[in-house]
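TEACHING EXERCISE
Course module: macromolecular assemblies
Task: Read the component lines below, then compare them to the predicted structure of the full complex.
Student: A.B.
Group: 4
Components provided:
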Amino acid sequence: MKTRLSLLLLAGLVLCACAPASEEEVITRALAVDHESLPSHRHADRLDALQRRFLLDQNPGDQLLIAPWDTEESDVPYLITRLSDRPLTATRELRLLHDKVRSADARSNSELGYLLSSLAGKLAPPTGTRCLYLAMSPSNAGPPPAIEDEPGRGRHGAGWRAHLLIPDPESDPLEQRNRWIRHLHELGASRIQVHTLDHPLEQLPPCR
Amino acid sequence: MSLDDRFPVSGNFWIDLLVLVVAAIGLLYLARSTAHEILLGLTRALTSTLRVAHRAMAVWGTQLRRGGQSALYQLVGEHQRRLTSRELEQLRNHVHGALKEAPALKEAIEGNIAQLERDYEAGPALPEPPAAWGELVEKITAVQDKADSSLRDTLDALRVSVEKSCQQLTGQHDRHSRQAQHHLGRLQPVWQQARDSLEVLEKRLANLDERLVATNRRIRRFETLQAQRNTQTSRFRAWLALNLGISGFLLLVGAMITLVNYHLLATPLQEAFGTQANIGPFQAAPFTAIAVTAAQMGLALLISDAARITRLLLPISRMSALSRRVLLGIASVALILLALTEAGLAFTRDTIALESEWLRRELEQGIATGSPDLRIVPAMAQMVMGFILPFAFIALVPALESFFQTARVALLLSAAFLIGTLATLTRLLARLISSAGHLLVYIYDLIIVVPLSLERRFRRREPGLGGGEEV
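Instructor-supplied answer key:
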């Protein structure tokens, strides 16, 4: 009896010390800001606050994608990071990421259609909670024509949620917005919500 | 549906109603004796059932009360017995200590006395007082005045030599006196030592006397308690309520300490294991924090029992003194190691919280704040708390023991009180139902009062069976 208890205790201690990280549901949030289509002199503060709020909503273990991003290592126009599941390490990673985001030079001039298609490909895997925050002004540019054979394109109804964030409600024609919504559906978005970016932005729309 | 539809006799509602009432009264009158028997039988059955229930509950309540009181007396007696045995133990230790020091004290006193005797004997003899040389000189002077010249010269020479001898002897006596005085002066510290030793002895005897008085008082209280068992119940109950309240409060404090302990461990362990490491269905970090806190509580329990502060675990009470000491040593070392681990983890907690807070502020305000420096005071405070809290569990184990003991007795006495109250209510209900049965019979008779009065009138007119005329 005592031997069994000792073995159980030992097994418990070993489990405590060497428990492997299990596959838990990962929340993936993607943020895409169309700098080209937005008048930066009017909305720079709101977009900066949006990026900071986006970083603030991340938790240890989450995955985040920020686009557009000018990376030297690859031609992918976004930055993808899986945060550590350790709180202190994740905090330090977020701090480094914020330093990078603040530098204006990092912004890429990628074409929005290609960018969204790539992001939809990253959001396509059917596991975990996934959502895309797209900050843009629908009045300035229409959606690109559908490219059927584009690599990394998401499937229709892939299960991720899209939040269309409009900084300027005055320049938001309904017809253009509907065309964007149809385009996002084609890229794989299951649910789409349209929000107006308040200033200051109190809270990011929830991903779940 | 109206009465005419159900009971159409005359077509007039009031006449139909009257006929119905008369018919009902007639039926009730005919069924009077049976109805009385049913009503009385039913109430009697209910009453007897409730009486049985009352008796069963009364017996049960009495047994519970006796059990509770017995447990209470046992508890109070055990408490007093412990106090008395502690007093006796202290007395034994005191006497043992006093007896251990007694030979040395006795030896010191005897040594002082022997030293005094030796010094006294070794001292100079007391010089004889100088002879009455002055009187002799005066007599020679008186004879010298009456004598002739030759004799006067002789006497004069004699007087001079006597005076010289007198001066020599007086000087010698003075020297001897000074020597004796000096010797007595040297004896004074030895006397002082002897006096100190005697004072120490006196103090020890006085302490022993006080201890004896206290122990006697405790034993007398114990005896009084045993003698007044049946008369001092309310005082014992007050003592029980006080103990239960205090131990309950201390357990509440213990629960709060447990929560604080858990929080000190959980955040740093999350940093160590990560938020996605699992142990079975549980997250690794909170599970380990709970396990470590539980282990600290278990070790505190073992230490308290092994040190004979409490007697919660029977196997430890049966252990030999050596085994208990070994167990005490192992448990103490394990608890110290766990406390040190917790202190180390708690030290990093402030850094984790501070960095997270600074990043949040930076992201909310958009101002670059940089990395925060380590705050020494909060980090050290949490570290010290992390080291001390596991040992606080040891102090709370007696409260747990007291709570278990008093809660059992309080539960028994409360249950006895509740069951006694329920038994009284059952008794009252039985009485009420019994009275209600009789009341229903009277109400029944009141409804059929007209045929009843007619029956009584006719009965009075009938000749009695025993009143017939014999022919």
